[in-house]
Design brief:
Strand content: 5-15%
CATH architecture: 3-Layer(aba) Sandwich
CATH topology: Uracil-DNA Glycosylase, subunit E
CATH superfamily: Uracil-DNA glycosylase-like domain
Structural class: alpha/beta
CATH class: Alpha Beta
Number of strands: 6
Largest sheet: 4 strands, parallel
Order of helices and strands: HHEHEHHEEHEHEHH
Length: about 220
């Protein structure tokens, strides 16, 4: 399973990959996938790193858990496989992009095209048991993904971190705000969005404005 992590990320995260907690995490995941239906597929667990290399990361979006229903999760936070009905949070993300950038609502909810442009779509927990949200939390994933955030903060500059909702906002303490850009808002889930905490945040246009100002290529959302 560890072999699915691309070499460019392995070199940065090697200390964590060698630590006992990560070995215990992998053992737990192997047992879970053997005994239960879990998501995403094993080959997609590290897709966030596969499609967005460490060197090319310029935007980070942080989710919490993979989708836990059949056929949804593809290893990228908020993303679903082609042909899958868009979950409510993703619907609201696309609605905000539509309003913010005047871009037509897309047919596919697969966000690989974002990842390939340098957007790291990172869930804090990379796996989940079917129909059991949060079932793989507090097993080691959070320690691993916190290390990912800290490494990006320490070794790079001018990354735009988009922190949506209370859970993601807590990750701000891992980021050096003196050399990175942190955009915060409510979560795109209906509960938060319908209370006025999501729509109108203009994160997508603001992100591209920052990228342009620092001489980087804007993202085609």
């Amino acid at each position: 399973m560890k072999n699915n992590i691309p070499d460019n990320w392995k070199s940065v995260l090697q200390k964590d990959l060698d630590r006992p907690y990560f070995q215990e995490l992998l053992q737990f995941i192997q047992t879970e996938y053997k005994e239960y239906t879990c998501y995403p597929p094993v080959s997609s667990i590290f897709s966030a790193f596969k499609y967005c290399s460490f060197n090319e990361t310029k935007v980070v979006i942080i989710g919490q858990d993979p989708y836990h229903n059949m056929g949804q999760a593809n290893g990228l936070c908020f993303s679903v496989k082609d042909g899958i009905k868009h979950p409510p949070s993703l619907v609201n993300i696309f609605k905000e992009i539509e309003n913010d950038l005047n871009i037509p609502y897309p047919e596919s909810g697969n966000l690989e095209k974002w990842a390939k442009q340098g957007v790291l779509l990172l869930n804090a927990t990379l796996t989940v048991r079917e129909h059991r949200p949060g079932s793989h939390q507090n097993k080691g994933w959070e320690k691993f993904t916190d290390s990912v955030i800290m490494k990006l903060s320490e070794e790079k500059s001018d990354i735009i971190f988009m922190l949506w909702g209370g859970f993601a906002k807590k990750k701000a303490k891992l980021i050096d705000a003196r050399k990175h850009h942190i955009l915060t808002s409510g979560h795109p889930s209906p509960l938060s969005a319908n209370r006025g905490y999501w729509f109108g945040n203009k994160h997508f246009s603001n992100c591209n404005k920052i990228l342009t100002e620092i001489g980087n290529k804007s993202v085609v959302w």
